[in-house]
Amino acid sequence: DLGWISTVHVNRPAVVRHAEQIRKWRTVKGNWQAAWLLKAVTCIDLTTLSGDDTPSNVRRLCLKAKHPIREDLLKALDMHDKGITVAAVCVYPARVTDAVNALKAAGCDIPVASVAAGFPSGQTPLETKLAEIKLAVEYGAREIDIVISRCLVLTGQWEGLYEEIRQCREACGEAHMKTILATGELGSLANVYKASMIAMMAG
């Protein structure tokens, strides 16, 4: 609904005030803090996105993904038998097969996520983005992290952004898709809001 998108407005002073209030909230302590930190670990994608990634450092990352917390700490918290792992292992498409094989060899079912769609810049033709997504899924990625073309946001091409994300979602097939907005490059909080809504509308 482009009519609705065009009316989006963000009250920046109110957002800043609310952010300041959040900073003053008291944090949880003791066992509650440990519980929240352990929960946070299970939501993390353990990631390596280096130009010098090799099968061996991907294997090491996968072992860390299976055992992200030292065993003695888990025993002290009586959490050693709860199967605490990270949420996923995230790599470039070329390393997906390495990660899938390493996790299988380690006997765990942690999903492999892959960045795609021209990560990190997004400055890649759509056809190439779609091909990269399909290859990553073919290699065994169960999650795809796409990155949007910031140019579409900065120039107000909202239909184009919707269509790009929709086609990326379609290319993922059964794989879960996450959309990276690169909010620091979108120019305004209103653009961040609009891009977020369009990403959700596009699936």
From TrEMBL:
It holds the Pfam family DeoC. InterPro entries: Aldolase_TIM, DeoC, DeoC/FbaB/LacD_aldolase. It comes from the Eukaryota. Pathway: Carbohydrate degradation; 2-deoxy-D-ribose 1-phosphate degradation; D-glyceraldehyde 3-phosphate and acetaldehyde from 2-deoxy-alpha-D-ribose 1-phosphate: step 2/2. The keyword Lyase applies. One of its GO terms (cellular component) is cytoplasm. One of its GO terms (biological process) is deoxyribose phosphate catabolic process. SMART domains: DeoC. The keyword Lyase applies. Its EC number is 4.1.2.4. It catalyses: 2-deoxy-D-ribose 5-phosphate = D-glyceraldehyde 3-phosphate + acetaldehyde. GO terms for molecular function: deoxyribose-phosphate aldolase activity. Keywords: Lyase, Schiff base. Belongs to the DeoC/FbaB aldolase family. DeoC type 2 subfamily. This is deoxyribose-phosphate aldolase. It comes from Heliornis fulica. The gene is Dera.
